Structure formats: C-alpha cells, structure tokens
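Per-record layout

source: Kitasatospora misakiensis
name: Phytoene desaturase family protein
length: 488
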Amino acid sequence: MSTAVVVGGGPNGLAAAVRLARAGVRVTVLEAAEEVGGGARSGEAVLPGLLHDHCSAIHPMTIGSPFLRGLGLERFGLEFRLPEIDCAHPLDDGTAGVLHRSVAETAVGLGGADGRRWRQLFEGPVAGYDRLAESIMGPLLRLPRHPLRLARFGAPALLPAAAVARTFAGERARALFGGAAAHAFQPLHRPLSAAVGLGLLTSGHRYGWAVAVGGSGAITRALVALLTELGGVVETGVRVRSAAQLPPADLVLYDLAPGAVADVLGERLPPRTARAYRRFRHGPGAFKVDFAVAGGVPWTAEPARRAGTVHLGGGFAEIAAAERAVTAGRMPERPFVLVGQQYLADPGRSAGDVHPLWTYAHVPHGWTGDATEAVIARIEGFAPGFRDRVLGLAVRRPADFAADNPNFVGGDIMTGAKDAAQLLLGPRPGLHPYATGLPGHYLCSAATPPGPGVHGMCGANAAEAALRWLGSGGARRRAVSPRPGPPG
C-alpha cells in the first residue's frame, strides 16, 4: 500500500488526506496545534454557552465545493443553514444594499438599471455555476473544460473591482459589490480585484451564504470522521520543523505557507522553488473582536437585523480608500469591518437572549495597534446603542492569528496576498502550482489556487496531482537522496 504524510491539518490538509485515503493510500496527518482544523474551528471565546468561530464563518464556497459536495459529510452530522438575508451593506443614510440568495430578489431590491445590471452579471454564471466551478476552483492557467462559461464569467473578473462598480448607478449596488470584493484584502483599483467578489457572489447566489450548525468546527469534525473511517490517522501536537522529522512515505503534502515549506525542506528544495517560496508575498492582516451582545445589534437599517453577514465600509469610495491604506501599511480611521451574525441561522450558538457576534477589521500586515475601539465605533455608527448592549468581548490581534496558525503570517488569514500574479499563478510561476519541484512533495495550502475558503479544493487539487505522479510510477523511480530531482 502506498503511504502519504500530510503536514498541517487545516481544511485543505484534511481534504488532501481524504482524497488520498479514498484512493487507497495510507495517510497520516501531522498537525502542530493541539486541535486540528486550522481556520475552521469554533469554541467559547467570551462567555460560557456562546459559540464563536475562530476564523472562517460563512460558507457559500463550502457547500458549492466540487470536492466536498461528493463526500456525504452529512453522515457525520454536518448540517448547513441559511439566514433569512445573506448579506446587508448599511449606508450612512440608513439604507442598505441587500444580498439575497435569489438573483431576481436582489435585483428587485436594487431597482431600475442597477437591478438589470446585477441580473446581467450573475444570472448566467449562477445558472451554470456547478460546471463553472470545475474551472474556477482549480489552476487558472490551463485549458478549461467549459471555456465559453469561463469566458463569460472571466471577462469582468479580469477587471479592477472599481471598474465593475462604476457600471452601477446607485451607491447601494456599488457598495454591495465592493464589500464582497473587499474580501480579497486587495486595493480595488488593481486588475483582477473583481474576481474574488464575483466568485463569492456567484457561489452565494447558487448556494447561499450558509453557516455550519454548531460552528465551522463541525466541518472539521466531519472531515476527520470520514478520514478515520477510511483508515487515516490524525496526530496533533506534532510541529514539523525539518524534513528529518518526516516518517518515510511515498508522498508528502504540505498545508503550510510557502515560506514554512522552504524552512522544512531546506536544501532539498530546488533553488528556483526555494527563492519563489521565500519571496512569497503576504497581505494585510485581520484584527478580530468577538462580542457577547444582549438582545442582538440594534441596526438602523432593518435588513441588517436579519442578515447573516453585515459589511461595514460605507460607500464604495470609502471601502476602496480603506483597502488602499491597509495594503500600504497605514491604519485607516474607519476600517472595513465584517460582522457575522451566525446565530440568526443557528440559534444554538446563543445563550438565551445573549448572542455571539463575530467581527474583524482589515488592518495592515503585522499591525501591532489596538483596533477594538475602531470596530465598536464602526458598528455604533450603523447601530446606535450597540456599545451599551456589549456584555463582554475577546480580541485576537494579527500576532495572535499568526501564533495560533503559522500559515497566517502577520495576521494574513488569506495565506498570501491575492494580487493578480499570486491569484493566477500561486506561489511560483509555472503550470503546476502544487508541485514543489521535489518528487513526491506537494503544496496544498490556501497559497495555491483557488485560494482561501473552507472548500478543500487546494488540498483536493494537490492530492490529484500527487496521485497522477504516483500512478505514473514516480515513487518507484525516485532515488532516496537529499538532492532535488525534476518537478513532481
């Protein structure tokens, strides 16, 4: 039986392990933390009985994942639920851009020309999303299986988010799109900055901005249960610092940031790969504040009271200015803030009328300041009286993210800057973004296409590449040598 080691037990590491185990490979996952799951974990952060997600929280791309959809994870207790409204983007005048799962309902809310433009952008891609996902959820530099569908989606995706936003006449539509695009942690005037927003909105319109019942950790528990059923093993508290620690195996996959892979493999890594991994660029950081709130948030815009996700950024120009600032290393006075009200779809996360509120602000990479007051002020600006309802809070700074998960260098929860080059190519130029150049060794973290999110596709894609190499007889040809060989 072939063997594999997966270093790192985040969603992509677990997905890679499951794919390999389903192919009959004996798999061991080595996780440095005492708890597996990486960004897909949950727990009590503020008050007993309140459940907060550690990092990932809303999952349109999880339900729509071409890999995860076929695993039958509901057998292991995984259940998703949808809020009444997927996302709201309040504006200073008390109105809000409102995102529904239905493209038509969203368009009606935006009204007039903006509603028609929204339908033009999303109706076609949403209708063909399941086939489109096969192209956009893998390496982009390849011959797509559905080129016409990809071209229809990809033409606006190549544009700056600012250019797409200008096709809308009203601020509600511009801000609603801009808030989704800002999930990329990139300046919105750069080419390809529209891609993340379009992908998030398209998958959301197809499947909804759902939450996992019992927290994002339920996704991790289901993957571990399936892997265990397939004969895989997960070992926690095992931090791999060098290749000498790795047990003998035909395959090694790394759910790590590229710089960490370069540290582990050292001189075994081909020089070109080592240079690329060490030059890999990380993006802005996240500053997270979890709240315990009595009675929920008193939003002025009524739709926000029913929305699972709320984007606080003001109009498009203000969002764009804040994203430019954090990318340039400056902390804006009014940062872009994401708010998760997962308890609206999953009431079991609350304790009576006290509710868990999940928030984070975009801040500069490695920022050492305190954004707690800025986050509270941002919410208070759209929900007067919020401050008086806060019963407690817990803060996670960029350094805390990095200490808890070394993939989040400088608080970069995206595992790398998603600028045009890294979004298209991953951590190094070439047509094989998962290959390290060392035979049998593959990178499977969110640094590779299609990027961050609890969709498991980075891991599944890397595992497919590893299985192709294994099937070609690569393991039999490989010499046991510290010197690098041809690309694996």
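summary: The longest strand covers residues 285-294. Residues 40 and 216 are 5 Å apart (CA to CA).
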